[in-house]
Amino acid sequence: MEVLAQDGKLSLDDSIRKYLPELSSAYEPVTIREMLNHTSGIRDWGTITDLAGWPRGKRAHTMPIVLDILSRQRALNFPAGTQYSYSNSNYNLLAMIVERVSGKSFPDFTRERLFTPLGMTSSGWRDDYSRVVKGRAYGYDPVKGGGYRANMHYENIYGNCCLMTTVGDLLTWNENFRTPRVGGQAFVDAMQTPGVLKSGDKIDYALGLFVNDYHAKREISHGGATAGYRAFLMRLPDDDLSVALLCNRGDVNIGSLAHKVADVFLPPFKDTTPTRAADADAAFAGLYRDPLTDAIIPVQISDKKVMVGFGRGLELRPLGNGRYGVREGNELRFDKEGLILVTGHKAPARYVRIDAATPSAVALEEYAGTYFSDEVGSTLRLSVIGGKLTVHIQPGSDVTLMPTYADAFRDDASDLAHFTRDASGKINGFDIAADFSMGEGTGRVARLHFTKQ
Fold it and tell me: Looking at the predicted structure, is the pLDDT value of residue 311 above 80?
């Protein structure tokens, strides 16, 4: 995209509807730059297909299907430019813009302008899953009890994923940031400049790259995961070190593994951060809700440790004075009013304590019925089975919804359904918040409405 901007064929601050008029007016404020920064607020199309009963990898999705799904959306997750939330849709739409502006297919354009000039001879997009590719590794997941099963995405999509490459070519790509051969210094500088929200706050995501610290030095990196594949590419410019890691086993924590590889080549690092005693207070335990997004954070206290999440939960790192580290620099801050979630992606979010709900089987009957969303193109049927609220997602299987707070339920993946009521108090639908990241307080889909039929 930056190459086309240098060619003078577009501006990163153009509205995306200039190139994709099929999208609804809700997309008008969204710019190309905001898609590159993942601050666009555009819903993740893969999460939407889950709600329609077709999770990714279960159907041969194509780029026209992606555009059709996104053209049906009449709202964004949040106002463009106000916060960060990773969405695959951004990269799919960007690839479509490249094709319309350049007049070439995305695979052809990237080969001619990027891969061939850099000598990345083993790289290309998987735009046809049925094509036989010499030397291609298949993706696998381990099976409980031993052995493996193939886990492949049968899709003809690109931009957000599906680059077939090698560690050698990835290191060649990183070398262009060290000694620019394509795009010049302006190209590499733009890609590594963190985005800025409309509030003026910087985020840790640039144009397709995370800019963070590792061992108190700058790290520029990105990971990827699809089906049974995992990838991680990082640069530590202060140490002139690059690490590229590819894996075809889906349960690998590839980011952690990549950093372990880097540690082999880095000088010994001693963490001088003072250790603070845990100050867990039983009063911290409870359920907290962000009234702006409906996002929830359940807090448990176990053996003087603070845990967040349902089930066993995630143990937080005590920082002292009611502050706890979540992950990647994010933290929770407890006070008399509730808690504040602080992330590198948006303004601190205030969560207020809320009572947990325990509706009876009889009370659950009020939520039963048929619900439809034209944005998803799917009908969901809710019923009470065995004293539990159950949703049938056609043509998928039944999913149990567990109560959280009044009129709100979650599934095993912590996707949230918040029921809405009309002026008379009768339930008239529900809003979905799906693919929710508790550590960031954002979902890949937010406030997507289903109407009761």
Answer: no
